[in-house]
Amino acid sequence: MNAYYEQILLQTARQAIEEELLGKSLIDKPGLIKLFPQLDEPGAVFVTLNKNNQLRGCIGSIQPYRSLLDDIIGNAKSAAFHDPRFAPLTEKELPETTLEISILSNPEVVEYKTLKDLKKKLIPGTDGIILSSGAYRAVFLPQVWEQLPGFDLFFEHLCKKAGLPGNCLNNHPHIEKFQVTIIEES
């Protein structure tokens, strides 16, 4: 991925938020697709907003279900205005907010028999994890390993995020892994 393309993706995410704040259209979708046809291909991204190095919003898609361009635009707006953990982003906050886009690979099922087996099949810091058990589901991006180092701590928090007990791995939940390409504002 070249730097110009990465800059366009970040600019598009920021413009999507500005569109909502200003109530006017800023993104030339046909022009972007003409310049970068891959933006019209299915894609899944998470858009993360940080303010003063603190999380300010994060929303994303696990599986591709719309174009990469539409996923970036939709998830940028959702992260800014619809993350239930935060009040909607204000116009005043936007200049102090940095954006990060994580483009996800297609998730792959991790077949495992024991916790030891599972540990061998995951790479902390590289693999993002989707954990599901019945109607319960949660996702951690690979970046979360930085805040929750160590297999046990990482999965305890992921289980709890899913609404399950912290030791839910004992019940052999369904595990999928994925990787991300991270693009971030400096």
Report on this structure.
The protein is α+β, with helices and mostly antiparallel strands and 186 residues long. The chain has two domains: 102 residues, Hypothetical protein ph0010, domain 1 (Glycoprotein, Type 4 Pilin), CATH 3.30.700.20; 72 residues, Hypothetical protein ph0010, domain 2 (Dna Ligase, domain 1). The protein contains six helices and ten strands; from the N terminus they run ααββββαββαββααββ. The strands form three sheets. It has a four-stranded antiparallel beta sheet with strand order 3-2-5-10, with helices on one face. A hairpin with a 2-residue loop joins β7 and β8. α1 packs across α3. The radius of gyration is 17 Å and the shape is globular.
Short recap of the structure:
This protein has 186 residues and is an alpha+beta fold. Helix content is 34%, strand content 26%. The protein is globular and about 50 Å long.
Structural class: alpha+beta
Helical residues, percent: 25-40%
Which band does the percent of strand residues land in? 25-35%
User: Largest sheet, if any?
Assistant: 4 strands, antiparallel
Number of strands: 10
Gap between N and C termini: 17 Å
Q: What is the level 1 CATH name of the largest domain?
A: Alpha Beta
What do we call the CATH topology of the largest domain? Glycoprotein, Type 4 Pilin
Q: List the secondary-structure elements in sequence, H or E.
A: HHEEEEHEEHEEHHEE
